[in-house]
Every structure is written in structure tokens, then in C-alpha cells.
Amino acid sequence: xxxxxxxxxxxxxxxxxxxxxxxxxxxxxxxxxxxxxxxxxxxxxxxxxxxxxxxxxxxxxxxxxxxxxxxxxxxxxxxxxxxxxxxxxxxxxxxxxxxxxxxxxxxxxxxxxxxxxxxxxxxxxxxxxxxxxxxxxxxxxxxxxxxxxxxxxxxxxxxxxxxxxxxxxxxxxxxxxxxxxxxxxxxxxxxxxxxxxxxxxxxxxxxxxxxxxxxxxxxxxxxxxxxxxxxxxxxxxxxxxxxxxxxxxxxxxxxxxxxxxxxxxxxxxxxxxxxxxxxxxxxxxxxxxxxxxxxxxxxxxxxxxxxxxxxxxxxxxxxxxxxxxxxxxxxxxxxxxxxxxxxxxxxxxxxxxxxxxxxxxxxxxxxxxxxxxxxxxxxxxxxxxxxxxxxxxxxxxxxxxxxxxxxxxxxxxxxxxxxxxxxxxxxxxxxxxxxxxxxxxxxxxxxxxxxxxxxxxxxxxxxxxxxxxxxxxxxxx
Length: 477
Ligand code: NDP
Prior knowledge:
Layout: E1 5-8, H1 12-23, E2 28-31, H2 35-45, E3 51-53, H3 57-62, E4 69-72, H4 78-87, E5 96-99, H5 105-117, E6 121-128, H6 130-136, E7 139-142, H7 146-159, E8 162-163, E9 166-167, H8 177-205, H9 211-221, H10 229-239, H11 249-252, H12 262-273, H13 278-291, H14 293-299, H15 312-316, H16 318-348, H17 354-360, H18 371-381, H19 392-415, H20 420-433, H21 439-450, E10 465-467, E11 473-476
Parallel strand pairs: 1-2, 1-4, 2-3, 4-5, 5-6
Antiparallel strand pairs: 6-7, 8-9, 10-11
Helix pairs in contact: 1-6, 8-12, 8-13, 8-16, 9-10, 12-13, 13-20, 16-19, 16-20, 17-18
This protein binds NADPH dihydro-nicotinamide-adenine-dinucleotide phosphate.
NADPH dihydro-nicotinamide-adenine-dinucleotide phosphate binds at residues 9-14, 32-34, 37, 73-76, 79, 82-83, 101-102, 127, 130-131.
């Protein structure tokens, strides 16, 4: 018997993906650079389904039904290229290579183009949900050709998470679209985590709540519109007491957030595409700031306001106000992320269904949330929606939240509690709805020092004012 699919790269992600496939009744060929991982998988989990272990690339390829479907789950970057180079000579036209690692979408586009020349389908696929997701049902975001999805789709849909009976897997778009969407998913994840962290900081610093009390607040929020995996785990992290010290766990963890790079990529590409994804950018910068030990050490004594926590009615409504601020800021972060996907789609010629993307993020992945049902519905109502902020439900919710949102940010500013995520989200909202922006003045400055010209509100064409040395216009053209 041959295998319908093979997995090469059997570290935690590959192993769990292979087990997930086998548990769903698919025969899975197994391969790893070092034999040990393959042996271990078969020894420990061999009874979960049909596995065909292979100890050479040739044996692995020979174990596969045609057209062959090879899933690569190795370290992103050079290792992925090394594995592709190893397998390509052994494959034939029509075979499919899936890269399920966290590749940069530009690498995926390059690899896809090179393999297309050889008649091999290369399917860069985003997989989210960590090791648990890989085993029990991840959110899967395949790119590549439509043709490859005909054979791969049913397998991937089978092992993906399900929400309301629908698989959290769809063909996202051609070549690098899947990895692009996974990248933005991670960027949104950074923003979401930052906003939740700011909520915690405010509840503690301005509201005077203890971590255990904040865990309770988050738990309450988790039964409302903020119902999500990230809120749920935050509540659990905050409720946790460190056994060694007896202190709240959150107080014994070094306050320097690390990053593996997908958030940074999202921001870099956001800049390239000219999409204002300020919420994601601030979240990445907040992690960088937290990790800037020398800078923080040197700056610790800088003056700030006294931090007298809130009292009276302001305290009474504070948790609810923070919930509103979190919700509104979150809508902004997602709106920005979806706009980035839209812009990426336009730039690279992908026909991405944004509502479908929202729907496959409802389960399996780190940003899974009830909220994504509303995004799915918003794009179903209006596929060409310019921004989520103008869709009926979100518009009303954010308008209703804005008084609290503004009040929470003023409290933060007054007490000197940094809220880059909340603040940039509100600035974006106010920027978008502004009748006039001071960009007009920036254009004037540009014209003054660089003769960069400007357009006028009342006439067509491009204009330059000949600014004299004393700043008075000499003449206008
Ligand atoms: P790692 O990223 O730690 O990669 C280890 C695997 O890569 C091993 O199988 C290793 O083989 C193989 N490998 C490394 N270099 C080479 C090489 N030059 N040639 C052949 N094989 C090589 O494993 P993970 O399971 O954590 O992640 C796999 C992929 O999935 C990565 O791209 C990761 O970014 C992505 N991912 C990870 C998630 C997570 O939560 N961990 C979530 C979503 C995606 P050997 O055993 O011989 O060393």
C-alpha cells in the first residue's frame, strides 16, 4: 500500500501534522533528515494510524501515490531550500510540494516560480495553532495553484479545525498568498496581544486591580464579544501563582518580550505596500522597546506624573471602559490587517476572499475568536468593504465605545501608563474620519524646501509656489 501524502521534517510540528493525518485515516509516509525522529514517531505513535517510515529521500518518494504530495515541515529559510533541492530531482511533473513552515511569502513566490518551470506544484501553506493545533486541528492557509488544491484540499480540510462544521482551511490564492496571509495573521496576533497587555497594565496601574482580580475580569470579558483564545489564556496566565516564590507568575517573568520575526515581516511589507498598519507596528515596537535593556536602564529615572490610581465613579466604570477601549482598538488592528491583505492581493494579483480568510481564522489558530464571525459576515455583506470600520455592526460598536476609549487613553496619558496600541488605534480612527488632515501643511513644507509641488482642492493640476528667501511667495505657477 502506498501513502496518499508524506511529511518530511518530523520535529514537533511535522510529527503532529503527520499524526493528525494518520488519525484521520490517511496513510502517511514519514521522513526526517536524522533517522531518530522517524523511529521515535513510529515507536511512540505507530498505533494511531498507517505510517510508512522511510530512511532515505528515495524510499520516501517511492512510498507515495502519484501524483505525489510531499509536505515539508522544517526550519524556514536555507533548510527549506536544502530539502526542496534534495527532493526535486526525485519528483515528476504534476507532483506537489507543500511548504508548511513559516516561510517568507517572497521566498515562496521565488520557489513556486522555479518549480512551476519544472511542472511541479509548490504550495506555500500557512499553518497556525502551534503544536496542539497541528495535532488536533490547525487553521490551514494554502497558496499555490488551484489545481494542486483539488487533491490537497480534501486532505487539509479533513485535518483542519472545524467551526460550525466548516473546515478552517481554504485555497487562499496563487503562489505566496497563503504565507502572506499567515504573516498578517501573526502581525494581527502581535497587535491583539499588545492590546490585551495594555488592558492588564491599565487595570493594574490605574485601576489598582491585582493580577488575580484581572484574571477574573478577563474571564468575564471572555463570555462576551471579546470571547477568544488569547483572552482565555491571558486569564489563565494571570491566575497562575509561581510555585517557587508564591508571587503572581506575571511578576516573576522578565518583562522583555521576544519575537521570531513574522510580526516584523508584516510591518516591513506594510511599509513597502504603503498600508498604515500602525497597530501591528506599535506592537512590534513595544516588544523591541521592552527588550532594549540598556535604553530602559538609562531612562528609568526620567520624570513622570504621580500615579494616583483612580477612585470613585471613574474606578467604578473603569474595567468596562477598558473593555470598550480594547474592543475598539482591536477592530482597528483587524481592519488594518485585512487592508494589508487586500493591498497584498492587489499588488501580487491574488484573488483573496477576505471573508473566507476571516472564517478560517475562527478556529485552530492563535487569534481564533467569536469576533471573526462578525468579520466574516461584514465581508459577506459587502465584499469590497473599504475598511471594517465602516461596516454596519463595527461602525456602531466603535462609535458606542469611543467615549470610553478616549477616556481610558486620557487616564493613561495622565498617569503616565504607556498605551501605544490603544493610542495609535484611536489616532488611526480619528485620522480616517477627519474632514481635513494637516497633510496639506506637510505638502506646503515639501513644496517650500524641495519644490515637490502640490495639488489644490479647487483646481486640477500640479502646482509649485516660488518661495522667496524670506518665506514670502514670489509668484505662483
Ligand atoms: P524546527 O523549526 O525546530 O525545525 C526542525 C526540523 O527541521 C527538524 O526536522 C530538522 O531535522 C529539520 N531541519 C533543519 N535543518 C535542516 C536541513 N538543513 N535539512 C533537512 N532538515 C532540516 O521545527 P518545528 O516543528 O518547531 O517547526 C517546523 C516549521 O513549522 C518551521 O518552519 C516553523 O517556523 C513552522 N511553524 C512552527 C510552529 C510552532 O508552533 N512551533 C507553528 C507554525 C509553524 P533534524 O531532526 O534532522 O534536525
